[in-house]
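Hi all, posting the design record for the shared folder.

TITLE: backbone redesign
STEP: 1 of 1
STRUCTURE INPUT:
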C-alpha cells in the first residue's frame, strides 16, 4: 500500500509546506475514520499534529483546489495513449438551517423536486481507456446562476398581430447566454487554461440539460465539440435534396423524421439481448432551433414479448464522429455520478457543517479531492486485487491506524515485516473483496 506522503509529494510545487502537511494529516484521517466526515471527526482521527484548531485553520485557508486536482491527476492518473473527454454535471448537497453560504432551494433529481441545499458545478476529465472520471473543478452556484430570466408583464396588443415591422432576423449562432451558461463557459475557459497543452480535449459531454442550441453554441465558442441528448420528441428534419423551385431561397428542410418509421438506410447496428431488440440509427439531420447540422444517433429498443418501444436521441456537433464512439462517450458521462456517490458516501460531501464561504468551498472540494486520491492509491493495488474498493481501502488504513497505535504501547517497536503482517491480518476484518494474488 503506497504511503500518502508519497502520493501527495507532487503537490509541493503548488502548495505551501504548512498547508501540505495539514492536508496530509486530513487525508490520512479521512482514509481511516468511520462515521460522518466533519472537522471534529477529522481532528479525532488525525492524531499528532491534527488538533481541532489546526483543522479549523486548514479549512479557512484559501486553496486553489483545481490546481491541486490537476497536478495529482497528471502525476498519478493520466496515460499518454489515452483519449480524454471533458464532462460536466451539477450536484445538489442537501442542507438545513439558514446560515450556510449559498443556501437556497435547488432542483434535485434524486428527490424529484426542489430541496434546500447547495448547488455545485463539477467539471471532470473522463478517461476512455480507464473508464473513469477524475474531477478537476468544483464551483458553487448561487440562485442568480440558476434562475430563469423573468418575463416582462404581457400587455394587451391593440395593433396588428404578428412580427413587428422593421425587425431583423437574428442568426442562431448569435445567442444571448443565460447567467448559468455564462458561468459554465467561464468555468470551462479556466479549465482549459489550467490543463494547457498537456491534454488534448475535443469533446464536452453533458446530460440532456444541454440539449439546446444555446448550450451548443456556448461550447462551440470555446473550440470544443458537444455531445449530449435531445428530447425524445425532438422535431428533426432530413436535409432537402430535391430540385430547386426556381425562385426564392433554396429549400433547407426535407421530410420530418418519424421515430416509429426510421428509414432502413440509417440503420447501423441491430442485436437482441434478453428479449430486447436494439436498433441503432445514425444520420445527419436538421433541427429548426439549431444553427448547424447535427450528427444524430437514435437508439430504439423493442420488447419482443410486449412489443413496447422506447428510444433515445443522442447528438453531437462533430459530423465525423461514428455512432459507436458517440454512444460510448455519452455513456462515460455517467462516471461523474460515481464521483458524486463516493464523495457523498465516503468523503463527507453531505456531512460538512461549515457555513462560511471559504470553509464551504474547501469542504466540497476536499471531498472531490479525496475521490482522486482514492483512485491514485487503489490503482497499484488492483494489480493483485482487481475488485479492490473504497471500503477495502478504508479498512486497510483503519487497521493500520489501530495496529500502529497499539504497537506504540510496547517498550520496543517490532520489525517492519511483523507490522505489515499485523496490518494485513487486521484489514481482513473490514474488507469486502479478497486478493487474487496476495503480495
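Okay, here is what came back for every position:
SEQUENCE:
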Amino acid at each position: 500500500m503506497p504511503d500518502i506522503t508519497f502520493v501527495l509529494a507532487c503537490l509541493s510545487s503548488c502548495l505551501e509546506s504548512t498547508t501540505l502537511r495539514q492536508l496530509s494529516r486530513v487525508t490520512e484521517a479521512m482514509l481511516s475514520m468511520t462515521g460522518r466526515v466533519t472537522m471534529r471527526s477529522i481532528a479525532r482521527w488525525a492524531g499528532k499534529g491534527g488538533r481541532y484548531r489546526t483543522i479549523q485553520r486548514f479549512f479557512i485557508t484559501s486553496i486553489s483546489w483545481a490546481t491541486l486536482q490537476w497536478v495529482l491527476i497528471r502525476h498519478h492518473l493520466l496515460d499518454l495513449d489515452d483519449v480524454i473527454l471533458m464532462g460536466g454535471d451539477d450536484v445538489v448537497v442537501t442542507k438545513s438551517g439558514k446560515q450556510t453560504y449559498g443556501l437556497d432551494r435547488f432542483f434535485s433529481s434524486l428527490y424529484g423536486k426542489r430541496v434546500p441545499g447547495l448547488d455545485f458545478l463539477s467539471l471532470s476529465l473522463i478517461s476512455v481507456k480507464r473508464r473513469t472520471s477524475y474531477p478537476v473543478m468544483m464551483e458553487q452556484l448561487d440562485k442568480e446562476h440558476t434562475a430563469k430570466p423573468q418575463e416582462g408583464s404581457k400587455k394587451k396588443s391593440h395593433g396588428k398581430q404578428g412580427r413587428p415591422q422593421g425587425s431583423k432576423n437574428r442568426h442562431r449562432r448569435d445567442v444571448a447566454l443565460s447567467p448559468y451558461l455564462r458561468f459554465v463557459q467561464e468555468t470551462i475557459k479556466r479549465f482549459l487554461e489550467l490543463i494547457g497543452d498537456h491534454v488534448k480535449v475535443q469533446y464536452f459531454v453533458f446530460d440532456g440539460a444541454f440539449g439546446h442550441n444555446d448550450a451548443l453554441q456556448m461550447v462551440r465558442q470555446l473550440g470544443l465539440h458537444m455531445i449530449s441528448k435531445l428530447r425524445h420528441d425532438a422535431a428533426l428534419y432530413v436535409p432537402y435534396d430535391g430540385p430547386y423551385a426556381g425562385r426564392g431561397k433554396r429549400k433547407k428542410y426535407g421530410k420530418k423524421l418519424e421515430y416509429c418509421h426510421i428509414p432502413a438506410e440509417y440503420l447501423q447496428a441491430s442485436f437482441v439481448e434478453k428479449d430486447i431488440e436494439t436498433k441503432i440509427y445514425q444520420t445527419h439531420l436538421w433541427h429548426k432551433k439549431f444553427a448547424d447540422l447535427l450528427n444524430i444517433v437514435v437508439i430504439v429498443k423493442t420488447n419482443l414479448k410486449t412489443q413496447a418501444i422506447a428510444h433515445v436521441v443522442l447528438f453531437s456537433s462533430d459530423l465525423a464522429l461514428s455512432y459507436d464512439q458517440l454512444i460510448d462517450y455519452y455513456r462515460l458521462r455517467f462516471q461523474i455520478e460515481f464521483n458524486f456517490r463516493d464523495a457523498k458516501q465516503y468523503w463527507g460531501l453531505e456531512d460538512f457543517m461549515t457555513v462560511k464561504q471559504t470553509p464551504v468551498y474547501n469542504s466540497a472540494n476536499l471531498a472531490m479531492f479525496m475521490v482522486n486520491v482514492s483512485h491514485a492509491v487503489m490503482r497499484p493495488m488492483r494489480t493483485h486485487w482487481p475488485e479492490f474498493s473504497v471500503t477495502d481501502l478504508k479498512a486497510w488504513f483503519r487497521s493500520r491506524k489501530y495496529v500502529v497505535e497499539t504497537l506504540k504501547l510496547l517498550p520496543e517497536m517490532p520489525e517492519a515485516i511483523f507490522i505489515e503482517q499485523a496490518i494485513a491480518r487486521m484489514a481482513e476484518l473490514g474488507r469486502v473483496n479478497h486478493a487474487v494474488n496476495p503480495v
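COMMENT: The longest helix spans residues 357-381.
Let me know if anyone wants the other runs.
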